[in-house]
DNA sequence: TTTCGGATCCCCT
DNA sequence: GGGGATCCGAAAA
């Protein structure tokens, strides 16, 4: 079980896809690549009834990719300065995607570090969704890429399986809506996993 | 056309 | 532990 995924393997409920993606690797040859990173933290966004999902308000040119096909890359711009990357997963034609939150760089660390001149550390960690896209050199131009296509500059590779007892779940980070839904998944013990911050403005109370 | 809020990161205290 | 940077997408009017 190595190499790339097939589209059928990824055309599943984003909740299942989220778990499957833990331990898999994203490789990018964008720019001067390659940089390859092992995914250790993800969040699922799914359907028309999830207020935190971009798909909640219906299909728009921006979120069009979320409607499938599965296995494509959904990149969006946030906060006027950051990009975040998702893997599209669909169930019964519902829109859905898995946000890639954190990863460990396993190849191309020097380039990864060079892409983050202000950061401390050795460039082997990508702890945060916007850091992950920076390290891999991902941007708007990569939106909609087929991650299962061997010719694609960004590909998803099956990595080492993560033991089920090392998978943790909890509420999504920075999301005010649907906090009761534990749709965040991460690999216990990875130094790249971000510290939890609750959603919404400041701490209500 | 205008308004407003957001799946964030980094530096400073 | 808190606030500023900085700009796009969607909704309202």
TrEMBL record:
SUPFAM superfamilies the UniProt entry points to: FMT C-terminal domain-like
Superkingdom: Bacteria
Gene3D superfamilies in the record: Methylpurine-DNA glycosylase (MPG)
CDD domains for this protein: AAG (cd00540)
Keyword Hydrolase tagged: yes
Keywords associated with the record: DNA damage, DNA repair, Hydrolase
EC number: 3.2.2.-
GO term, biological process aspect, one: base-excision repair
Molecular functions per Gene Ontology: alkylbase DNA N-glycosylase activity; DNA binding
UniProt record similarity statement: Belongs to the DNA glycosylase MPG family.
Record's protein name: Putative 3-methyladenine DNA glycosylase
Organism the protein comes from: Amycolatopsis antarctica
């Amino acid at each position: 079980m190595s190499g790339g995924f097939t589209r059928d393997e990824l055309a599943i409920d984003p909740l299942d896809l989220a778990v499957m993606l833990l331990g898999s690797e994203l490789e990018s040859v964008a720019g001067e690549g390659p940089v390859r990173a092992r995914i250790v933290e993800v969040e699922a966004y799914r359907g028309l009834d999830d207020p935190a999902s971009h798909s909640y308000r219906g299909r728009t040119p921006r979120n069009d990719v979320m409607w499938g096909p599965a296995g494509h890359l959904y990149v969006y711009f946030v906060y006027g300065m950051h990009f975040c990357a998702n893997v599209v997963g669909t169930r019964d034609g519902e829109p859905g995607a898995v946000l890639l939150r954190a990863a460990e760089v396993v190849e191309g660390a020097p380039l990864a570090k060079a892409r983050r001149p202000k950061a401390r550390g050795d460039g082997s960690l990508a702890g945060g969704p916007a850091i992950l896209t920076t390290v891999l050199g991902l941007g708007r131009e990569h939106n909609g890429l087929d991650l299962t296509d061997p010719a694609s500059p960004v590909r998803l590779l099956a990595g080492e399986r993560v033991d089920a007892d090392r998978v943790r779940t909890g509420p999504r980070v920075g999301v005010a809506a649907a906090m009761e839904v534990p749709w965040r998944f991460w690999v216990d013990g990875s130094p790249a996993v971000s510290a939890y911050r609750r959603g919404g403005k400041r701490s209500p109370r």
